[in-house]
Design brief:
The chain has 433 residues and is an alpha/beta fold. It has 13 helices and 16 strands. This is LAO/AO transport system ATPase.
Length: 433
C-alpha cells in the first residue's frame, strides 16, 4: 500500500494505517504531511513511579468515546535491540480494544532530552489523523527529560507525595516547565503537605511567567479516580486559552524546529554506526577524537561549496529555478569581481548564478567567448593560506591574490593548469556562516 493510501486511511482513524505510517517514520521514511492544528498535545512528565501511566489510563477511560485519543509512551531504549525497554502498553491493554484510542510505545534511542525524531513524526501523523488528544508520557528521568516542552501544548508535571527538600530538587528540572502541577497518588496522607508546598512554589512562578495562563495545582489519584474529572476540565480550559490567544501555533513552530534538530541527530547516529574505521584509528591513537569528529562531519577535507553558472539575464534565470521549487537568495553585488550573484540552495550544496556588471569582468569575457554555462567550481577549505601552499607545491598556478568574494575570502586556480577547469577556493568568514 502506498504512503498516500495510508494517509487517506489514517485520516479516517484507521489504526492499522496509523501504525504503519509511524513504523515507516521510525525506519527513516519522510512522511509528507500538511498539518492543520486541531489536536491538543499534552506532555505528561514527572519522576519515575509518580503514576504517569495510571493517570493516563484513567483519563483515557473518562474521555467521551466520540473523541479520538492517542497515547505515546516514551520508554528507555533496550541496550540490546534499541527498542522500547519498559513497554508501558502492557498496563493499558484494556484500552487498545476501544476504537477511539490508539496507543504506541516508543523508545528514546538514547537521545538527551527524552524524545527522538520518530516521536515527533508520530505526533505529526496523529495530528494529521485528527486526534483530539495526544498524550505523551515521558520517561521521567529528571532534569534532562524536558524536550517535551517544545512539542506539547500543555505540560502536566506529576509530583508524588514528597518532602519540601525533594520538591526543591525537582525544581531545577521538571518543575520549571509545567502548566498544570498534579499531586499524584493523593490517596496518600502525605499528599496534603506536598500540595501546599507546590502551591507556594507555583505562586512564585506565576509572577515570573506573566502569562495569560496561570499554572495550576491539583490533587489527583489515578488509581481511585479522585480529581481526574477536574483535571480533564483544566486541560480543556488550557486548550481554549491557547486557541483564544492564538498561541496554539507557537508549539507547532517549536515542534518543527525540534524535529529538524532530532532528524540531524538521527543522520549523525547513522554516520557514527558506519564509522568503524575512524573508531579504530581513534582507539589506535592514529587520530585524535576531535580530528575524527571533524572527518565524520566532512569538515576536515575540502568540500564542494557551489557550482557557478554565468548567465546573461539573472532575473530570468532566477525565475526558472524558483519554478523548480528551489530556494533562491537575494542578489549580492561583488564589486571586486564585477558581478551580481544569486545563490540557489540545494540539499547539500548550492548553484551560484553570475551576471556581469561591466564588460571588462572575467564573467563578461566568458559569456562573450563561450556563452552561458558553468563558469567555475568552488571548493570550501578550512585554511586558505595552507591550501595555497599545497596548490603551489603541486605546480598549479593561481589567477591572482586572494580577494573578497560573495562567500568570504577567495582565490582561483588557473584553468590552464587544471585541465581546463577554473577552480575557486573559498574560506568562509565567521560572520558569513
Amino acid at each position: 500500500m502506498s504512503i498516500n493510501e495510508l494517509l487517506e486511511r489514517a485520516r479516517n482513524w484507521d489504526k492499522a494505517a496509523i501504525a504503519r505510517l509511524i513504523t515507516l517514520a521510525e525506519e527513516g521514511v519522510e512522511i509528507p504531511l500538511n498539518i492543520q492544528r486541531r489536536s491538543h498535545v499534552i506532555g505528561i512528565t514527572g519522576p519515575p513511579g509518580s503514576g504517569k501511566s495510571t493517570l493516563i489510563y484513567t483519563m483515557a477511560r473518562r474521555i467521551p468515546q466520540d473523541k479520538r485519543v492517542a497515547i505515546l509512551t516514551i520508554d528507555p531504549s533496550s541496550p540490546f535491540t534499541g527498542g522500547s525497554f519498559m513497554g508501558n502498553r502492557i498496563r493499558m491493554q484494556e484500552l487498545t480494544s476501544r476504537p477511539n484510542i490508539y496507543i504506541r510505545s516508543m523508545a528514546t534511542r538514547g537521545i538527551r532530552g527524552g524524545l527522538n525524531y520518530a516521536t515527533i513524526a508520530a505526533v505529526n501523523i496523529l495530528e494529521y489523523a485528527s486526534a483530539d488528544y495526544i498524550f505523551i508520557e515521558t520517561v521521567g528521568a529528571g532534569q534532562s527529560d524536558t524536550d517535551v516542552k517544545y512539542v506539547a501544548d500543555t505540560i502536566l508535571v506529576l509530583v508524588p507525595p514528597l518532602s519540601g527538600d525533594e520538591i526543591q530538587a525537582l525544581k531545577s528540572g521538571l518543575m520549571e516547565i509545567g502548566d498544570i502541577y498534579v499531586v499524584s497518588k493523593s490517596d496518600n496522607q502525605a499528599s496534603e503537605s506536598t500540595y501546599r508546598d507546590l502551591l507556594a512554589m507555583v505562586d512564585m512562578m506565576r509572577e515570573v511567567k506573566g502569562d495569560s495562563w496561570k499554572p495550576a495545582v491539583i490533587k489527583v489519584s489515578g488509581l481511585y479516580g479522585y480529581g481526574v474529572d477536574e483535571l480533564l476540565k483544566l486541560i480543556d480550559d488550557r486548550f481554549r486559552v491557547l486557541v483564544g490567544n492564538g498561541k496554539l501555533n507557537e508549539s507547532l513552530t517549536s515542534r518543527r524546529l525540534l524535529e529538524m534538530r532530532l532528524y540531524a541527530y538521527d543522520i549523525l547516529e547513522k554516520r557514527l554506526n558506519e564509522s568503524k574505521e575512524l573508531e579504530n584509528e581513534v582507539v589506535n591513537g592514529k587520530l585524535s577524537p576531535q580530528e575524527a569528529a571533524r572527518r565524520l562531519l566532512g569538515m576536515e577535507m575540502p568540500r564542494l561549496d557551489h557550482v557557478a553558472v554565468a548567465v546573461k539575464d539573472l532575473n530570468s534565470a532566477v525565475e526558472k529555478f524558483r519554478k523548480l521549487g528551489l530556494r533562491v537568495s537575494d542578489p549580492i553585488i561583488v564589486e571586486e569581481q564585477g558581478v551580481k550573484v544569486v545563490m540557489v540552495w540545494l540539499g547539500n550544496t548550492r548553484i551560484e548564478l553570475l551576471e556581469t556588471l561591466n564588460p571588462g569582468s572575467t564573467v563578461a569575457k566568458f559569456l562573450e567567448s563561450r556563452g552561458e554555462g558553468i563558469h567555475h567550481i568552488a571548493l570550501e577549505v578550512n585554511d586558505l593560506e595552507e591550501f595555497i601552499k599545497r596548490v603551489q607545491e603541486a605546480g598549479l598556478v593561481l589567477t591572482g591574490k586572494p580577494s573578497r568574494g560573495a562567500e568570504g575570502i577567495v582565490t582561483f586556480i588557473h584553468p590552464k593548469s587544471l585541465n581546463g577547469v577554473l577552480l575557486e577556493l573559498v574560506q568562509r568568514e565567521a560572520s558569513n556562516e
